[in-house]
UniProtKB/TrEMBL annotation:
One of its GO terms (molecular function) is glutathione transferase activity. It catalyses: RX + glutathione = an S-substituted glutathione + a halide anion + H(+). It comes from the Eukaryota. Residues 29-109 form the GST N-terminal domain. Pfam families: GST_C_3. It comes from Linnemannia elongata AG-77. Keywords: Transferase. Its EC number is 2.5.1.18. This is glutathione transferase. GO terms for biological process: glutathione metabolic process.
Length: 258
């Protein structure tokens, strides 16, 4: 992974020559992922690109307030996909990017049914991430944020853990949602857990996770996958981890820089 602050203009999506652009998506040679210098909604895509040993650059905005207008929806992440015939073809929205990359690198199961189950588990993890962001993470007042975290823990988080514990047990509590190999669903849930534990008050969620032997097993299986382990032990990953903890301790302070 290399880091760059030069952001291609993605203001407009392409609507012509879509067959050629589709070929680029099917046969990419390199990628650029634009996201803030923290984990959050960039973590899963970065992890997939790294463990797949793809050729990719990690782009970070230099001045987001000025650059946001150059993205399709004024939000990140944005993925730029290149091939010999097209450069920097744009894909937006975290969930779409993650599913595209997972499909590209054989992380979407063995058939149509497994693929859609994986999408379901992926969507559930992403929804909980979004719920935490909207109801807890960006509350300005620290005391109010603390109370919101307690409500999140005792309500939707505890319920989510129980539901996912059930599904993981249905697959044999082997650390995977589908079969016995790593998929997007495993990676997304693992990154959700790591993200939430980095939040202020995240230690209050750790006990709930510990009560689920199946989620503990998933977390261990993903972390001990040799490809994931290599990435998460890298300096780049640890720098992102430190920046994530710093940012979410006070989301209204100046953003961290790599």
């Amino acid at each position: 992974m290399t880091i760059d602050t030069v952001t291609p203009d993605a203001t407009h999506l392409a609507y012509k020559n879509t067959e050629s652009l589709s070929t680029t998506f099917k046969n990419p040679t390199s990628f650029k992922l634009l996201y803030f210098p923290i984990h959050s909604n960039g973590a899963t895509s970065r992890e997939i690109l790294t463990i797949a040993q793809a050729e990719w650059k990690n782009l970070v905005p230099k001045d987001w307030e000025k650059e946001k207008e150059k993205t399709p929806f004024n939000v990140l992440p944005v993925l730029f996909v290149s091939s010999p015939t097209n450069k920097d073809v744009v894909l937006a929205e975290a969930g779409v990017i993650e599913q595209y990359l997972a499909n590209q690198f054989d992380l979407m199961g063995n058939n149509e049914y497994e693929m859609n189950l994986i999408k379901s588990f992926h969507s559930s993890a992403a929804s909980l991430h979004s719920l935490h962001a909207t109801t807890v993470a960006f509350i300005p007042d620290r005391e109010a944020r603390k109370k919101a975290m307690e409500a999140f823990r005792d309500g939707p988080f505890t319920q989510w853990v129980a539901i996912h514990d059930k599904h993981l047990k249905d697959n044999g509590s082997n650390g995977h949602y589908i079969g016995n190999k790593l998929t997007l669903a495993d990676i997304r849930t693992s990154n959700l857990i790591e993200h939430l534990l980095l939040q202020t008050g995240g230690e209050r969620l750790a006990g709930i996770i510990e009560m689920s032997s199946s989620l503990r097993r998933l977390r261990t299986e993903v972390a001990h996958d040799p490809r994931v382990e290599k990435w998460r032990s890298s300096r780049a990953y640890k720098t992102l981890t430190d920046a994530t903890g710093q940012y979410f301790s006070d989301p209204f302070a100046p953003a961290p820089k790599l």
